Amino acid sequence: MRSTTTRRNITAGLVGGTILALVLPTMASAHVSVSPDELTAGDHGVLTFSFAHGCENSPTTSLKVTMPEGLASVAPTMDSDWTIDIEKGDDGLVSAVTYTAIAPVPNELRGAVSMAVGLDEDTPDSLAFPVVQTCVEGSTEWTQLAEDGEDPHSLDAPAPVVEVVAASADGHGEHGSADEAGDADTANSDADDDAVSANALGTALGAGGLVAGIAALVVSVLAYRRKA
Fold first, then answer.
1. What digits encode the pLDDT tens for the residues 101-125?
2. What was the pLDDT predicted at 121?
């Protein structure tokens, strides 16, 4: 009896562990994300907002993205899977964009919408984009922001956030400068390798010419002796 009970407990533990292994990753990824999550001040880029679940497993019907202060321009991307409604503020700038799905997005599929945004030199260091996800049944407001020292991953419904990095002297972000420096080092290394190869080739050709000259001299001497 004890052996049977032990086997049952082990089986239950394995089943429970398997369920947790499958459910926890889904719970961790259950949010609306933005990519890229970093832009350069004064630059522009295309932001993609994606999701892979509905509201309590209900298919998604729309996403409403509210624009933060500090954007110089917003241009939603046309997509045959969504209709787009644009709201503007008194300043004429886009204040919110609502993407409505032509057909509800099933819970098993990934959905995504995008927009081009432009930044000013004085754009704040962090841009939060509150999103309201509406489903066939219910809705979820992805609007929570982490307080100082708080882990954003601990929030139940975090808003997508884009960090803004300062532009360097050449107009690129700090990461771009490092990448360009790496490219320059690679180019210099390639140039050095080419120079070494050219020198080696020149040395080989010079040596070959010297050997040919000596051989010709030997042939000439032998021919002269035969005639003599």
1. 999 999 999 999 999 999 988 899 9
2. 81
Q: From 119, 135, 167, give the residue that closes a domain.
A: 167
pLDDT at 168: 74
- Lookup result for tokens 């729309």: 62
41 - beta bridge partners?
Answer: none
- Asked whether residue 186 falls in the same domain as residue 224, the answer is yes
Peptide bond into 158 cis (omega under 30): no
For residue 210, what is the enclosing H or E element? helix 174-227
How far apart are alpha carbons 86 and 149 in whole angstroms? 35
Nearest-angstrom CA–CA distance, 59 and 65: 18
For residue 94, the cross-strand partners are 88
Contacts of 42 (CB under 8 A, 6+ apart): 119, 120, 121, 123, 167, 171
Q: What is the pTM of this model?
A: 0.63
Q: What are phi and psi of 138, to 5 degrees?
A: 85, -175
Q: Within this chain, do residues 58 and 145 fall inside the same structural domain, yes or no?
A: yes
CA distance 103 to 121: 40
149 and 227, same domain (yes or no): no
Residue linked to tokens 């010709």: 216
Residues 74, 117, single domain; the answer is yes
Is the sign of the CA dihedral 178, 179, 184, 190 positive or negative?
Answer: positive
pLDDT of residue 35: 97
CB 78 within 8 A of CB 84: yes
pLDDT digits (tens, 9 = 90+) for 16-44: 444 333 333 333 345 899 999 999 999 99
Q: Tell me whether residue 110 is in a domain.
A: yes
